[in-house]
Amino acid sequence: MESEASSCAAATIFAGVAEGFYGRPWTFEQRKHLFGRLNRLGLNTYMYAPKDDIKHRSNWRELYNDEEISILGELVSAAKENNIIFIYALSPGLDIGYSNPEEVEKVKKKFEQVKNVGCTSFALLFDDIEPKMKPADQEKFETFADAHVAVTNSVYEYLNPDHFQFCPTEYSESRTIPKLKSSVYLNTIGEKLHKSIDIFWTGPHVVSRELTVEHLIKVGKVFRRKPFIWDNLHASDYDPKRIFMGPFKGRSVLIKNHISGLLSNPNCKYEVNFVPFNTMADWFHCVLDSNDDEEEEMIQGEELMFYNPEKSAQAAIATWMHEFHSVNGPSIPPIPKIDENIEGADLYLEKQKAQLANGVLSQENSFPLEEIIQTLVAPEIAEQNSIVNSLSADYAQPMEQDESPIPEEDELVENVENSSDAGSTTNRDKIPTIKHINMLIDLFYLPFANGRGATRLYEEFAWLYENGVVMRTNDDAGFKNKAGVIIKKEDWLEHYKLFFDMVQAVVDIFAVFSECTNKTLVSDLIPFVWEAHGVLMVLLGVIRWIRSGQLKVVPDPVSAFWYCQIDKEPWSSARGLFEDCIRLLARDQKVMDLFRNKILLPLSIVTYDIRPCFSTDANLIRELGMEKNSEMDMNKKELQGELFVERDYAPFLQFGSEYNFICEEIVRGVTDTRRPICFAVAHSNGSLVQENLPLYLERSKRMFTDNCLKDHTTVGDWFPRVAADIFIQYPAWLNVRFDLDPFDAVPMRRLVQAVCVTLAMNEVKGVFCPIPVSETDRLQFFLRIGFKNLGLSECEKFVLVGLKIFWTIFEKEEPVENTEDVEESSSGSEMSFDILAK
């Protein structure tokens, strides 16, 4: 071990960052900021290779104009000032003619142009291309590898660079044909490529869980040199909903003896790479892997530096906290423009125009968090052509320092109200704490593993769901679950408190992040924090519904998928916080699609509270039904509210609906206030509702005279007449009411998700919702989120939309048992929880 450590300590390798991802490249300011960060961390290399930068790959033949080459020269100089090796990479493999001297000359001239501004290190990349040649190339070169060798060696000899790297088409063991050892392509490269040229390699896979000494020795034999690692551990370009903020892990410190360099190809979002970069730097400077059971050793009188990923991450977090309250970070890439042809863009742009008209946003100096979040929620809304020019002067301008971090209307983002379960929120932390950052990193950890906090969160949800029927029991004897374990209510409530505290930590994260002064850091993190907040609130809402005693069906044990090892590439299976939460919530594809459906809805970054609602909430529902026009006579307003409750709320509760949710906006002040936004009620037996409606409507007619109703829809037109065959496939009757203001679309979608998830948990196989034919906006909303148009009602005054929610993914193994002690009805207690709607 001593000799290994000594040689590792003496090893001099390239170590740093490759900007080699797909997606919007970093800005000039971010790259300069990176050079300073790498220098402070003791790293030494940066490679310019952004896949979607127009003159790097798609238009590689084009020389840079004066402005572009000047900016590139400034970057080269900035790297040198920070003792960073600047590697300029070119990717001509999409369409180069290998046998055409003019094509090879264009590669040389492109490199020479960059060399003339001070760059002395270069790379040719032939990754992610089809392994085939044009007819003229086939006549000249025996193999694809021979073509690559010829071009690369020629360019290398022409440039006479300080350093030169080459990326093969077979750049991971999973891409070798037929296998690593017998790959004709790689063996040809290893044998014929100039010995001073380094060869990039990603490991056993494109994104490799581990890099071992044994593997790298094997690769080195094929390459006839030490491989240069292109490390995709933290790359996130294959899934826009994921980022990876966990530590540099799965790479023994000892591999440094068997590689010529290692560059991290990181998250596309620059600011989220703080912990990955810092921990990689610790790895680079350490000489042995940590053994937690060993005391620190001494060799030749010097303390050994042991690398421990988790301890390194904690040190990085302590430093990162200060970044949140720096004045500002480097400018971010420009936000993609909304494609007006995308479904839903009309609603979204309508909101944006309204904000501008009201002075809420400035066209020139706005900080558009909602637009940033939309690129995560519905990434296809952006302009279809993602190729950009990051070397143009107007690619990204530095943000104004004197602007408030968030537009005035969106200042409610900081008002993340704590649930009534946890008491007062007046002493909430105002700056990020170690706890906040740890939880954030646990939620967005690594492609092959969740952090401890996320794992515990999933475990608690599964336990609460599997044993939730105990909250429906009437006595203290408890409930025997399918594992034969007796669960009591107090046990369940203890687990609930743990689960709530973890979710509340995410609420706190969103609240404190909104107050951070570093706008650029917030802009990179906020889409993911927002998404985490929203989907976790749905989890919490479902658990609260279970707590109220509404779960009737004893579920089979939830598959602990969060422990499953991913043996292939991480994109081969849908994972990550968002997908994992969907799998916890939904066991049917149609319900999953309610979450996954990438539609464009207008967003509002405010705090919403979604909770089960009861008969005691009639006053809030009444408020929703009252005309907002202040000129209306108060008596008329009150009558309007009474009619609203009588028509849209009371009948469902009277008939025994158990899937009822209300959404309120929380506005924090000296005294917090709540404003009802929308609500949804559903009865699992729609046929029963229709059967009882005539008697109910007779009572309503007696309550309201014809004179009272003269300005309102007559009682007889309140509800549709639904054909019997609808109830066969869509037995549940859903009724929703939300303002036609497009701001309410997102919270309403969350309510529908909560209703459908809870219906599915009680094995209701489908749900329909009647919409008056005149309310086309509401109809379009349901069609957009995934409901099917079922046609007109028998009275032809309503359009019916429906969703099947069969449990088709995880089949039940046996009939429901052990329900003798379960009540068929319960009143439940009023509950509330925080939600930021998607």
Question: Could you explain the architecture of this structure?
Answer:
The chain has 838 residues and is an alpha/beta fold. It has three domains: 2-308, Glycosidases (TIM Barrel, Alpha-Beta Barrel), CATH 3.20.20.80; 345-392 and 399-585, no CATH class; 610-835, Aminopeptidase, CATH 3.40.630. 39% of the residues lie in helices and 12% in strands. It is built from 26 helices and 22 strands. Helix 19 (618-625) crosses helix 20 (634-648). The protein is elongated, with a radius of gyration of 30 Å.
The number of distinct helices, counting runs of at least 4 residues, comes to: 26
Instruction: Please state how the strands of the largest beta sheet are arranged side by side.
Output: 1-2-3-4-5-6-7-8
Poorly predicted ranges? 294-303, 338-367, 381-385, 398-428, 808-838
> What's the end-to-end separation, in Å?
53 Å
DSSP helix fraction: 25-40%
Strand content: 5-15%
Main sheet: strands, sense, barrel: 8 strands, parallel, barrel
CATH class of the largest domain: Alpha Beta
What's the structural domain tally?
Answer: 3
Find the count of extended strands (DSSP E, 2+ residues).
Answer: 22
CATH fold assignment of the largest domain: TIM Barrel
Backbone CA Rg: 30 Å
Name of the CATH architecture of the largest domain: Alpha-Beta Barrel
**What is the CATH homology-level superfamily of the largest domain?**
Glycosidases
Domain GH84: 13-288
Region (Disordered): 818-838
EC number: 3.2.1.169
Protein name: protein O-GlcNAcase
